[in-house]
Amino acid sequence: MPIPQLSLSAARHLHLAAQGLLKKPRRRAQPADILSTIQRMSLLQIDTINIVARSPYLVLFSRLGNYPSQWLDDALRRGELMEYWAHEACFLPRSDFGLVRHRMLAPEKMGWKYRQAWMQENADEIEQLIAHIQDKGPVRSADFEHPRKGASGWWEWKPQKRHLEGLFTSGKVMVVERRNFQRVYDLTHRVMPHWDDNNDLLSQAAAEAIMLENSARSLGIFRTQWLADYYRLRQPDLKPVLKHWQDNHQVLRVEVEGQGEMWLHEDLFPLLPQALAGKLTASHSAVLSPFDPLVWDRKRAEQLFDFTYRLECYTPAAKRQYGYFVLPLLHKGRLVGRMDAKMHRKTGVLEVISLWLEEGVKASATLEKGLTQALNEFAVWQGARRVTLARLPDGLFAGCRSGWEIDIA
């Protein structure tokens, strides 16, 4: 068979289809959609910055539309989800516990995430903490008194927080819920009473093989270089893996305009005829998180979408090019721009500090309609009553320079 030849636009649309970002949601979200959406992405990265909605909630909103953020917390509390180091700190289906268990059992390989010297130096106190959880039940680090300021004058992490982080990375405790986004820890043997390391443990090789399969499915269409980053794997030799997948009709080699060789996952085979005919269209406009799987691999976003992105919240203000927490803007299959925004929760105002369009993207009625709808939906979901716009590209939102009112009803 000849190798299918795809346009760059078609490849982007296939990738968006795999990620659940090609079309607007067809129905109102339901609680069960939290787990199914995370399963589709494989992972949901966690970040605590809340200048607008925190990242994990925003990633789900971009795919589900208006939904109660509490649903994510509920899914964790019900045991549908777990937290662990995957891409970075992530929510993942609890059914994937076996994929990361080998990492828990070798925490010394986890780099900065685990301080073995600390755990050894404080072994007695850590054993007392484990006994406390065993006796009293789940705990937060906030349940323990804060130490005084350190010699530097800054507040230090309380010892119990460091203990809990170490126990979490080494798999002795798991996060069973979040209260005001604070982790609540319980002992792993109580959370996973039926798990047996002697009988259930996957080898690192077996677990990573499944991680690669998950990555291929969640990416939908991919270059081989993109696979390992999804679960932060060391770059393996993928030639035998791809041959096995190809022999088993799990992937299909394709050629993409300007990209060269790429691979299409079997879940997207039904969409290939539409993609080849140029009939796989994108209709979704959405505000994205900087930690959305679509853009968390900055090289992939640049290669596939010609979108160069750097998170600047850790950059001194005077050196920032765009802003503190800049959100990518998706419109009908393209990453068309980005905005620096802040949600003022006390006053119910979503402030768009600055908005930029990417080079070559022209302001048009269609673009303005899509972004207006995306911004309105984003604001309503966060409980905003008004959006204010400051620095804008020429020709965009010309009639809304002082902000527009939002009909909450």
Task: Please tell me about this protein's structure.
This protein is of the alpha+beta class and 409 residues long. Helices cover 36% and strands 19% of the residues. A six-stranded mixed β-sheet has the order 10-11-12-13-14-15. Strands 1-8-9-7 form a four-stranded mixed β-sheet. A three-stranded antiparallel β-sheet has the order 2-4-3. Helix 5 (97-104) crosses helix 11 (204-219). The model has no long low-confidence stretch (mean pLDDT 93).
Summarize the structure.
This protein is an alpha+beta fold. 36% of the residues lie in helices and 19% in strands.
Give the N-terminus to C-terminus distance in angstroms.
55 Å
**Low-confidence sequence ranges:** none
How many helix segments?
A: 16
Strand order of the largest sheet: 10-11-12-13-14-15
Shape: globular
Alpha carbon gyration radius: 23 Å
How much is the average pLDDT?
Answer: 93
Helix content class: 25-40%
Percent in strands? 15-25%
Number of separate strands: 15
Task: Give a short account of the largest sheet.
Answer: 6 strands, mixed
Notable characteristics:
6-stranded mixed sheet; 4-stranded mixed sheet; alpha+beta; 409 residues
Blueprint (SSEs and pairs):
Blueprint: E1 5-6, H1 8-19, H2 32-41, E2 44-45, H3 55-64, H4 70-77, E3 81-85, E4 89-93, H5 97-104, H6 116-121, H7 123-136, H8 159-169, E5 173-179, E6 182-187, H9 188-191, H10 197-200, H11 204-219, E7 221-222, H12 224-230, H13 239-247, E8 251-256, E9 260-265, H14 272-276, E10 285-287, H15 298-305, E11 326-331, E12 334-344, E13 349-357, H16 365-381, E14 386-391, E15 404-405
Parallel strand pairs: 1-8, 13-14
Antiparallel strand pairs: 2-4, 3-4, 5-6, 7-9, 8-9, 10-11, 11-12, 12-13, 14-15
Helix pairs in contact: 5-11
